[in-house]
Design a protein that fits this description.
It contains 8 helices and 6 strands; from the N terminus they run H-H-H-E-E-H-H-H-E-H-E-E-H-E. It has 229 residues and is α+β, with helices and mostly antiparallel strands. The protein has 2 domains: 137 residues, no CATH class; 79 residues, ACT domain (Alpha-Beta Plaits, 2-Layer Sandwich). The strands form 2 sheets. It has a 4-stranded antiparallel beta sheet, covered by helices on one side. The chain has a two-stranded antiparallel sheet with strand order 1-2. Helix 1 runs parallel beside helix 5. The radius of gyration is 27 Å and the shape is elongated.
């Protein structure tokens, strides 16, 4: 007499559908923020992880029902393998790094998919809810209490060598920008002065407005704000 299968076809269909929905919820949130890994990516990962978990459970009962085996072997490979996709979502822009949260969300939906595939529906639903709250609402809290800061190179080019840089530095100080270092370079034959500053700019600061104020401070030829590389 054959041992009964651990899963019926209906079980598999329900779990795959739930994996699809779970990935869609997190993916929709990521797409709404225009992240590199969005709706389709998260759906494919969550559904794929669910499918691999189902396969991990199904194979031992189908091909070797009498022998004990580890249904977590395939799942373990998913957890480590998802790191390659996560790494692809991380982008370095100068001194700034973007995509860490999206990389974490890819790893998270894979874990949710595996949990659904294992039949732990209540745990998966709670994890999905907590993950969605973290991405959707704690982002607002984090932005309010821990504003992001960006490192930039601020260059101010004056028209001649006689210009004073004090007014521009005062504007920068009052704006809340933290100056890390200052370098002044005066060209020969009165061709101008270059003030170069490495600054840390809070996310709430309007960079364009600061640049306009500096440009209007007098004797300024050009203002450039660039990424720090």
């Amino acid at each position: 007499m054959d041992a009964p299968l651990a899963l019926t076809e209906l079980d598999m269909i329900i779990r795959l559908t739930l994996g699809f929905v779970a990935g869609g919820i997190i993916g929709f949130e990521r797409s709404s923020r225009h992240q590199v890994a969005g709706l389709r990516t998260h759906i494919l990962i969550a559904t794929g992880a669910t499918l691999l978990m189902l396969l991990s459970i199904y194979i031992p009962y189908q091909f070797n029902p009498e022998r004990a085996s580890d249904p977590g072997r395939i799942a373990a490979q998913v957890v480590s393998g998802i790191g390659f996709l996560g790494a692809g979502a991380i982008i370095r822009l100068g001194n700034n790094i973007r995509g860490l949260t999206t990389a974490a969300s890819l790893w998270f939906v894979a874990a949710v998919g595996l949990t659904i595939g294992a039949g732990m529906f209540l745990v998966a639903a709670l994890a999905e809810l907590l993950g969605f709250i973290t991405l959707r609402f704690l982002f607002i809290v984090e932005k309010k209490f821990f504003p992001t800061e960006r490192f930039k190179v601020l260059e101010i080019l004056y028209k001649d060598n006689t210009a004073s840089t004090l007014e521009a530095q005062e504007i920068i100080k009052k704006s809340g920008i933290l100056v890390q270092s200052i370098d002044v370079n005066q060209s020969s034959k009165n061709k101008g002065t270059r003030l170069r500053l490495l600054v840390m700019i809070p996310g709430s600061v309007d960079i364009a407005s600061i640049a306009r104020s500096i440009k209007a401070s007098g004797n300024v030829n050009r203002v450039e704000i660039k990424e720090k590389y």
